[in-house]
Amino acid sequence: MKKEKIKPTKKKILTYYLILASCLLVAAAITVGVVFGVKKNNPTIDKPPVENPDDSNKPDDPDKPDKPVDTTTAYEFIVPVKDVNLTQSYVFGYDKTLDRYTEHKGMDFAAAAGTEVLAAVDGTIENVYTQDQLYGAVIEIKHENGFMTVYKFVTPAENLKKGDKVNRGDVIGTVATATGVEIQDGDHLHFEVFENGKRIDPDLKLNIISK
């Protein structure tokens, strides 16, 4: 005698579906809770990487060395005579030749007539005056970045002329016998510096007074 299969009623089927749905909801809730818990403990998840502010300064090729810094001293001024004997700076003071107080617009370096005068920095000869009644002879040199140096009470080197290229330390002439408006100061080189056409204190470039 065969047993008849008992068919589940619609009520039981609905109950099964409700139980299954409840299990799925519980599983989903557990999964969401785990995900949020991980993110809370690891705040870096889903955050975009922060760019290093210094990255813009890094070379495109990290294996390629940076461009070397120019450490040459071609544009650093030197004192235009070898033995430094500063007798007058860029100040307002008494002028023995004029017998009055006035502004001394340069630096004076005491040196015997015939002492070599050197180019203070690389440049191009701008002018050579050989018969200046006030300063005897004058040499002007034009340099980079708007600078010009002026050398007064000198005897220019033979054949020195406008347009000649000179390097720092090159001999451009010699100290001449005292004459003109500073004759009472004895033999010396009078040195001036201009920046963009304006006369400035030469010690701003030589930096010898503070040494």
Describe the structure.
This protein is α+β, with helices and mostly antiparallel strands and 211 residues long. It is built from two helices and 13 strands, in the order H-E-E-E-E-E-E-E-E-E-E-E-E-E-H. The protein has helices at 10-41, 203-206; strands at residues 86-88, 92-95, 100-103, 107-110, 116-118, 123-132, 136-142, 147-152, 154-156, 165-166, 171-175, 188-195, 198-200. The strands form three sheets. Strands 1, 4, 6, 7, 8, 10, 12 and 13 form an eight-stranded antiparallel β-sheet that branches. Strands 5-11-9 form a three-stranded antiparallel β-sheet, with no helix packed on it. The chain has a two-stranded antiparallel ribbon with strand order 2-3. 20% of the residues are buried. Mean pLDDT is 78; it is low at 53-59 and 64-72.
Strand/helix succession = HEEEEEEEEEEEEEH
Structural class: alpha+beta
Q: What is the CA–CA distance across the termini?
A: 126 Å
Shape call? rod-shaped
Query: Which stretches of 5+ consecutive residues score pLDDT under 50?
Result: 53-59, 64-72
Number of helices: 2
Number of strands: 13
What share of residues is helical?
Answer: 10-25%
Rg, please?
A: 43 Å
In short:
By secondary structure, the chain is an alpha+beta fold.
List keywords for this structure.
alpha+beta, eight-stranded antiparallel β-sheet, three-stranded antiparallel β-sheet, 13 strands, rod-shaped
Topology:
Layout: H1 10-41, E1 86-88, E2 92-95, E3 100-103, E4 107-110, E5 116-118, E6 123-132, E7 136-142, E8 147-152, E9 154-156, E10 165-166, E11 171-175, E12 188-195, E13 198-200, H2 203-206
Antiparallel strand pairs: 1-4, 2-3, 4-12, 5-11, 6-7, 6-10, 7-8, 8-12, 9-11, 12-13
